[in-house]
Design goal:
about 240 residues; alpha+beta; Immunoglobulin-like; 10 strands; about 15% helix; disordered N terminus
């Protein structure tokens, strides 16, 4: 064999070395491609965050949808001739309705306006009050056989088949309340169903009186107080 045998051995050894090197290169290439950019197989994929992130927003955190903002409070209804603030239930009868005033000696109120409007099922008369002190007015609302002025006893003409007398207590003269009293006299509403006329009779010795002329027989009514601003409300059922 001699030299030829030696060349064969070298050739075989060289081929083996080449094959080993090729395998090592393939293994290295495979490991590198599996690791991805950065070469760290154990490194987690980056999480999108911060401005410009593409991750989906949660249902409760949508930008600009106001989901996390508290609901705005309902605004208080402004006083108007057609205000629809609720009140107590209508009585099943036509007996007098009364309430006592508060703040006697420290509260002085005057009726500054009288408003009337019709609603679904009733007509509403509103007596606006203003003045000084933190007390509240009282009232006595009742049907009477005849409208009579306080003090003089003179009969007052009121259009209507039944007469509802409204006497608001805890009121005062404009000199004490500091506000002008309602200057009207007769109010003849055009679109009401139960009330034909309102006759305002001004203040007398701590009471302010008005008469409501009611169409037909005596009808159930309700009286109650609303505040901010202060007003006594009388509703007459249709």
């Amino acid at each position: 064999m001699g030299r030829a045998g030696h060349r064969t051995a070298l050739t075989t050894s060289a081929l083996a070395t080449t094959a080993i090197a090729a395998c090592a290169a393939l293994l290295l290439a495979g490991c590198t491609s599996a690791q991805g950019p950065g070469g760290d197989e154990s490194a987690p994929a980056p999480i999108a965050s911060g401005p410009g992130a593409s991750q989906e927003p949660s249902e409760s955190a949508g930008a600009g949808d106001g989901a996390s903002e508290p609901a705005e409070p309902e605004p208080e209804p402004a006083a108007s001739a057609t205000e629809t603030a609720s009140g107590p239930a209508f009585a099943a009868n036509t007996e007098p309705d009364t309430a006592e005033p508060s703040g006697a000696g420290n509260t002085f109120l005057s009726v500054t306006d009288v408003r009337v409007a019709t609603h679904d099922g009733y007509d509403r008369v509103v007596f606006d009050l203003d003045g000084t002190g933190s007390g509240k007015p009282g009232w006595r609302v009742e049907y009477v056989d005849q409208a009579v002025d306080d003090g003089s006893g003179d009969t007052v003409r009121v259009a209507g088949d039944a007469i509802l007398r409204v006497s608001i207590s805890g009121t005062a003269t404009p000199m004490d309340s500091g506000v002008d009293e309602f200057s009207g006299d007769r109010i003849e509403p055009a679109d009401t169903e139960a009330i034909d006329e309102i006759v305002y009779r001004y203040w007398f010795e701590g009471y302010t009186t008005a008469f409501l002329g009611v169409d037909g027989a005596e009808r159930p009514f309700r009286a109650f107080l609303l505040e901010d601003p202060m007003r006594v409300v009388v509703d007459v059922q249709h």
